[in-house]
């Protein structure tokens, strides 16, 4: 990566201005600290500034593949008017989620590659953001028999691993539509099921 | 919660004075209606709706702590 653009001393106050009141308003019991980035996985990411969260609500931030943590990160980048090309220079983290996720993605990429080599059937990853897709692509860059490509647009954009000689890429798999707003679980789950009389033969 | 959405929106747009959040309390759900200047609409929605999705994610998590569901409507 090119030379550093963001220093903790100049970025941290701007982050505080946006993030501090936001966390209070949202009622998230967390605190954070901005520090100079260290390259734990230099092949995969080199953040210049890392914002680490801790506190009792950190699990809430990390639930669902760190959905809330990444949403906070994205909104902070937008609020600070950081151009999207530079978003990866600042990284939000908690409990080493980023490093663990890189490892997880790397392992799944290699497993997918093995499977495609054996079966020659394309493998679809779930939709991911660009940073995560990049990790898959990087993990597979030295593979000869398979290659990875991204297909689909926006929130469904996903990596497919295909045999290297495959000409046309498969269509993206569309995730099932989310449940409608007023959808409620149908009937109690366990109780009634257990009360059902045994079936006669 | 109104204040949360207002703060986020104001930080994202170019004309913060035109940010307005209206709360509609429902039985199950509280709807937060967000209005911004027409020129700022793209700023709160984002490419492929990514900004709006991020705001909704945070709103959802904040609502969970209050045991209440909130929906964000961005009005044109």
Which keywords apply here?
heterodimer, A: 201 residues, alpha+beta, GMP Synthetase, Chain A, domain 3, Ribosomal Protein S8, Chain: A, domain 1, 2 domains, three-stranded mixed β-sheet, 15% strand, globular, B: 76 residues, 3 helices, 3 strands
Spatial gap, N to C terminus of chain A: 70 Å
Oligomer: heterodimer
Helix-strand pattern of chain A, N to C? HEEHEHEHEEH
Q: Count the helices of chain A. How many?
A: 5
Most extensive interface, chain pair and sizes: A-B, 25 and 27 residues
Radius of gyration of chain A: 21 Å
Strand order of the biggest β-sheet of chain A = 1-2-3
Number of helices of chain B: 3
How many domains make up the 3D coordinates of chain A?
Answer: 2
pLDDT below 50 for ≥5 consecutive residues: which ranges of chain A?
190-194
Please give the alpha-carbon distance between the first and last residues of chain B: 21 Å
Average pLDDT metric of chain A: 90
For the secondary structure, the number of strands of chain B is: 3
Question: Helicity level of chain B, as a percent range?
Answer: 40-55%
Structural class of chain B: alpha+beta
> Architecture of the largest domain in chain A, CATH level 2?
2-Layer Sandwich
List the helices and strands and how they pair.
The complex is a heterodimer of chains A (201) and B (76).
Chain A: H1 8-26, E1 31-36, E2 49-54, H2 58-79, E3 90-94, H3 97-119, E4 123-124, H4 130-139, E5 146-151, E6 158-163, H5 191-195
Parallel strand pairs in A: 2-3
Antiparallel strand pairs in A: 1-2, 4-6, 5-6
Helix pairs in contact in A: 3-4
Chain B: H1 2-12, E1 20-25, E2 29-35, H2 41-45, H3 50-66, E3 69-75
Parallel strand pairs in B: 2-3
Antiparallel strand pairs in B: 1-2
């Amino acid at each position: 990566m090119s030379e550093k653009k963001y220093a903790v001393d100049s970025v941290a106050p701007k982050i505080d201005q946006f993030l501090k009141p936001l966390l209070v308003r949202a009622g998230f019991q967390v605190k954070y600290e901005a520090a100079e980035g260290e390259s734990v996985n230099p092949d995969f990411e080199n953040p210049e500034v890392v914002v680490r969260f801790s506190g009792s609500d950190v699990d809430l931030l990390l639930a669902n593949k760190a959905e809330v943590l990444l949403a906070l990160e994205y909104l902070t980048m937008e609020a600070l008017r950081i151009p999207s090309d530079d978003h990866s220079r600042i990284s939000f983290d908690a409990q080493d989620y980023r490093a663990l996720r890189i490892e997880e993605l790397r392992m799944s990429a290699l497993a997918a590659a093995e499977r495609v080599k054996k079966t020659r059937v394309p493998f679809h990853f779930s939709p991911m953001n660009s940073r995560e897709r990049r990790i898959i692509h990087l993990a597979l860059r030295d593979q000869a028999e398979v290659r990875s490509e991204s297909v689909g647009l926006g929130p469904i954009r996903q990596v497919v691993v295909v045999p290297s000689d495959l000409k046309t890429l498969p269509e993206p798999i569309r995730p099932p539509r989310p449940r409608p707003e007023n959808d409620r679980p149908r009937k109690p789950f366990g109780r009634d099921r257990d009360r059902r009389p045994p079936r006669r033969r | 919660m109104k204040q949360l959405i207002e703060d986020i929106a104001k930080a994202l747009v170019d004309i913060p004075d035109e940010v307005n959040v209206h709360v509609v309390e429902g039985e199950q759900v509280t709807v937060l209606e967000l209005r911004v200047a027409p020129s700022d609409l793209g700023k709160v929605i984002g490419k492929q709706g990514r900004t709006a999705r991020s705001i909704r994610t945070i709103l959802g998590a904040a609502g969970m702590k209050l045991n209440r569901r909130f929906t964000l409507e961005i009005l044109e």
